Automatic annotation (TrEMBL):
The protein's name: Uncharacterized protein
Biased composition (Low complexity): 127-142
InterPro entries: Galactose-bd-like_sf
SUPFAM superfamilies in UniProt: Galactose-binding domain-like
Ranges that cross the membrane: 23-45
Region (Disordered): 127-150
Species name: Adineta steineri
Alphabetically ordered keywords of this record: Membrane, Transmembrane, Transmembrane helix
Amino acid sequence: MATETDISSSNTQIPVDSKKRRLWLIIKISVALLIIAALLTPIIIRLTRNKNTTTETMINTTVSFTTTTVPTDITPLTTKENNPTTISKTTTSSVSLTTTSSTTKPIMLQTFRRTNEVVYAIWNTSAGSNSSPSSPGQSTGTYWPTEPPEAALDGDLSTEYSNHGICIGSSPVQDVCGIETGFYITFKSEPFILVKFRIATNRNSEPRDPNTITIEGSNNTESDLVFGKSWSLVYDGDTGLATDPGRQAYGDTQTILNNSLSFRSYRILITSKRGEQVCVSYSEFEMIGRFPD
């Protein structure tokens, strides 16, 4: 028996069920998307952190070379099963390169050559004391008239400077003759830093060779150079003639250590000589140095 259907009621119910199904579908999709997003977020964060860490590591890595040797069969090593063992060798080396460059200005030394500077002969004078002028003659406190102090600075080994000191030109012959004699000079150029010097022997008498000397410097005016307080000691020691180089020949070059002081005037005094004679005599006193920077 056929049952009558309420068509109007059925038509009203269908749209309501369809809306519910759509709503549930949207809810399910949204929940699924939220779950997927929740699962993917830590992975993205982890990948981002790993990427940043890798970048930082690469930046901080110094020059490093890694050499990997392809596995090579070395002489077989016998194991319990008598099987050859293959050895793989990996070598890691790190190279650090440091380059340092410096420029050193070369020091140019010059030899002083006298032009028309006045050379003052002195005697009876020691380092730090007042200068006593010496004049030409053959008595006490004189130098040979034909062998003046200028001869020690003319660059000519055939000339020489001879001073008697407390002795006279003939006798007696003593080892003190010519001691505490010398000269001083003022440069016409700018102050000069004395770095080295050498002395040349006289023409015919070994006992007259100077053995030890003092060198002093001053920047005072020329009129004040007679006073001992005007001078500063630069050198006190050997002349470089301990071994006789022969006649009219230079001895060993002497170096003045750690001297950076420049002076306009220099005073040279003989403090001992090789032997007994009526005077001290030398053909050249060569001054080697430089001008201040």
